[in-house]
Amino acid sequence: MELSNPFCHTMAILLAVLLVAAAATTEADGALCDKSDKAALLAVKSALGNPPALSVWNSSTPCCSWDGVSCDAITGRVTELTVFALNISAPVPAAIANLTKLQILNLAYNQLYGPIPSFLGPRALPDLTFLRLDGNRLSGAIPPTATVFNLLLEGNLLTGTLPSTFGAAAFGEVGVAGNQLSGDASMLFGAKKKLNALRLSRNRFAFDLGSVELPEGLDILVIDHNMTNY
């Protein structure tokens, strides 16, 4: 009777396991990028004028491997989108609203123009905690929905007053310096607020700083070049 070689038998089993694992990995990689998020990102790219720097964003590759895109490792949903300093001149793309699991959005230092869309906030994007739009040419009023924990809007052309919704919002950082904002910004202050950094300089805010309580954890406060009473 012919006896099988135990070593060969073990190697055959090991090879089969490796092939199954490789197939599973390939399948997972292919499924990693959520289809609806990929379609939204391609729409974002189109709305931004298909800049050469985003040429890797194409239908033949998983979107989670694209520059500036990060995804949840389990669900494949897009959690972070960064299009930074590409000199893009366009409005903020409406398709971003379809990235419903987005946590971080950074579109800073481009030439984006027009208003800040109302969907850029936790009402439409419930997981959004970081919004960076500084260094653009965005204009108009800040929408009341923009109550994102870290809100960076410095160096734009924003006008009007701060939304009343900002008074009850839980901010960690607010940067609106270098705009044309006016009115009372004292709603952002309060001893129990979570605010760590507040930049209001180079606007037209007018309020009495002596009448407010500074947040206990406030490390950065920049309010120069306003109409504020110290």
UniProtKB/TrEMBL annotation:
Domain Leucine-rich repeat-containing N-terminal plant-type: 35-72
Protein name: Leucine-rich repeat-containing N-terminal plant-type domain-containing protein
GO cellular component, one term: membrane
Major localization class: other
Family the entry assigns: Belongs to the polygalacturonase-inhibiting protein family.
Keywords attached to this entry: Leucine-rich repeat, Membrane, Repeat, Signal, Transmembrane, Transmembrane helix
Signal peptide location: 1-23
Phylogenetic placement of the source organism: Eukaryota, Viridiplantae, Streptophyta, Embryophyta, Tracheophyta
Topology class, membrane: Single-pass membrane protein
Recorded superkingdom: Eukaryota
Annotated localization: Cell envelope; Membrane
InterPro entries, per the entry: Leu-rich_rpt, LRR_dom_sf, LRR_N_plant-typ, PGIP
One Pfam family it belongs to: LRRNT_2
Organism: Oryza sativa subsp. indica (Rice)
